[in-house]
Amino acid sequence: MILAAPLASAQSPAASGAPVRIIIGFPPGGALDQLARVLAEQLRGASGDTVLVENRPGASTRIAIEAVKQASPDGKTILIASTAPFVIFPMTYKRLAYDVDKDFTPVAHLVNVPTMVSAGVNQPYQTLPQYLAWVRSHPKENGVGVTSLGGILHFAILQLGKNIGVPLNVVAYKGGSQLATDIIGGHVRIGTDALSSQLELHRAGRLRILGVSGHRRISSLPDVPTLKEAGVDAFDHANASYGAYLPAGTPRDVVDTLERLLIATVNKPQVQAQLARLGLEPTGLPGTELKKMLQAERGFWRPIVESSGFTNED
């Protein structure tokens, strides 16, 4: 049962009616934006606060992250973010304006974000094993589309290339829609992105999802094998996730209240149905579990990132 309590303490701007802001580093319309709006709607009713979603895209989500770091630690500014800025960025950026451990308090693990590999329907392969055989015989046509350099999928592709003995060339796109357009048009042989970005295109027959990440099939795509089933283990840790964070120094009772509200929200059947339609898998885990997951993922990816020699300068 959701506890009807304010998100901030009595000493916070809540007394003056200042709104709660959910800040995300992406423009409107994507899966993270839609998740944030579902949460905002639920939190409004549960807490009595005015809850707004604020989109601050740019600089690979670092603009949004830095805005939350600088916010007052009163529970009125919430960051909803993916794992990459907290797992991969500290390894690839020589300078970051935030410290992932010192500047934020993990509040809740909200959803898993399955990723996938897809291809145009007119390509000469219909499964991932067929693609792998094809690229081995056409090693110069080795481009793989991604939506950003230096993310988890970037390094999963590099690992895949090592595993099959064909160096794969990562081709970066500015967004999921541009990547999907080039996959459909055959301008890039395969691409990888969050499942939610191409789920409806697959359902409409405009492109073909060859496999999904993780260790089990997705309930919304029971006929699509996991990449593991297709003989690819480079994507075992390629699922992203979205979590909630508050600025460091936020009072513990405020953190605990928001944690309870968010977990109760993503456990609501109607919310879970909404998120499933977006290709997201609700989790609803406490902040302690989110912190453990971030630490474990850093341990897994560190040797892979370091061996790649990749650094980010933007």
Rg value:
20 Å
Q: Give the distance, in angstroms, between the N- and C-terminal Cα atoms.
A: 45 Å
- The tally of strands reads 11
Based on helices, strands and strand pairing, what is the structural class? alpha/beta
**Biggest sheet, open or closed, and with what strands and sense?**
6 strands, mixed
Architecture per CATH nomenclature, i.e. the level-2 architecture of the largest domain: 3-Layer(aba) Sandwich
Say what the CATH topology of the largest domain is: D-Maltodextrin-Binding Protein, domain 2
Arrangement of strands in the largest sheet: 2-1-3-10-4-11
Could you characterize the architecture of this molecule?
This protein has 314 residues and is of the alpha/beta class. It folds into two domains: 13-113 and 240-308, 3-Layer(aba) Sandwich (D-Maltodextrin-Binding Protein, domain 2); 115-212, D-Maltodextrin-Binding Protein, domain 2, CATH 3.40.190.10. The chain has helices spanning 31-47, 62-69, 84-87, 89-92, 128-137, 152-164, 176-185, 195-203, 252-266, 269-277, 287-308, and strands at 20-24, 51-55, 77-82, 104-113, 115-120, 143-146, 169-172, 190-194, 207-212, 240-247, 281-286. It has a six-stranded mixed beta sheet, with helices on both faces. The chain has a five-stranded mixed beta sheet with strand order 7-6-8-5-9, sandwiched between helices. Helix 6 (152-164) links the parallel strand 6 (143-146) and strand 7. The relative contact order is 0.19.
